[in-house]
Design the sequence.
């Protein structure tokens, strides 16, 4: 039940972020100083921000950026983690030791810390965020893929396929991959939630998209000076992020219970 609720809420958020900027009559990036800080009303359901942009439309546009970028990062880290983890789990030996060493490094140097360090060298932007989150973000998925591969590789049918001379690539593609897809998908869903929070956190710190483009973290950062005068400017994107994170958490919890059933 909670998993279905999570899917429904997440689907609603995605539709809101994708469709609202398309059907809205307001441009989320074009300012209108004459309409600055209008309260919620019939014309602007959530009011306008400090430079007159419709808050509802801008929240949706920022959410689309947040979700798409988090999805891109998660897809990259999941692909890398699955390939490296499955290869290490099947080969054992040195590849397996290297993966465990990479996991130790990732625990010692989280992506947010690396991003802050890179921000002092590179220009703020999503390229910096990618450089910070992808190189270490795949390790978690890699460890799950490694563990699942080692478990599957000891099964009798896999040993039989190996005995007739099947190549490692064939084993990974045809025999092992279908059986590790479930655990990998579960950890990828959890990684998506963590990545979304990481991306928005970095944008809040000024390492995201430059204005006028923004995501939810950038919106909260822009609204910080107006927390007392117009708290809704920060509350609305923060609430959107919280609802999205909760929906994904419900989906992950349901998947984990299903996998252990």
Sequence:
């Amino acid at each position: 039940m909670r998993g279905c609720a999570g899917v429904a809420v997440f689907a609603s958020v995605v539709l809101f972020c994708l469709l609202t900027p398309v059907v809205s009559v307001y441009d989320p990036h074009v300012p209108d100083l004459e309409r600055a800080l209008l309260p919620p009303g019939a014309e602007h359901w959530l009011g306008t921000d400090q430079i007159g942009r419709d808050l509802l439309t801008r929240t949706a546009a920022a959410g689309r950026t947040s979700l798409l970028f988090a999805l891109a990062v998660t897809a990259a880290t999941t692909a890398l983690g699955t390939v490296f983890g499955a290869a290490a789990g099947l080969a054992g030996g040195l590849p397996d030791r290297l993966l465990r060493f990479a996991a130790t490094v990732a625990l010692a140097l989280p992506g947010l810390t690396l991003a802050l360090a890179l921000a002092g060298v590179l220009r703020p932007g999503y390229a910096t965020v990618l450089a910070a989150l992808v190189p270490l973000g795949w390790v978690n998925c890699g460890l799950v893929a490694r563990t699942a591969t080692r478990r599957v590789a000891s099964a009798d049918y896999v040993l039989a396929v190996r005995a007739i001379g099947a190549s490692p690539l064939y084993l990974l593609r045809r025999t092992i991959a279908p059986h590790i897809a479930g655990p990998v998908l579960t950890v990828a869903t959890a990684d998506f939630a963590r990545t979304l929070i990481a991306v928005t956190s970095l944008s809040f710190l000024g390492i995201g998209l430059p204005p006028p483009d923004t995501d939810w973290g950038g919106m909260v950062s822009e609204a910080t000076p107006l927390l007392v005068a117009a708290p809704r400017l920060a509350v609305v994107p923060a609430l959107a992020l919280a609802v999205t994170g909760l929906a994904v958490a419900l989906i992950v919890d349901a998947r984990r219970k299903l996998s252990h059933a």
Remarks:
- The CA atoms of residues 122 and 217 lie 20 Å apart.
- The chain has ten helices and no strands.
- The mean pLDDT is 88.
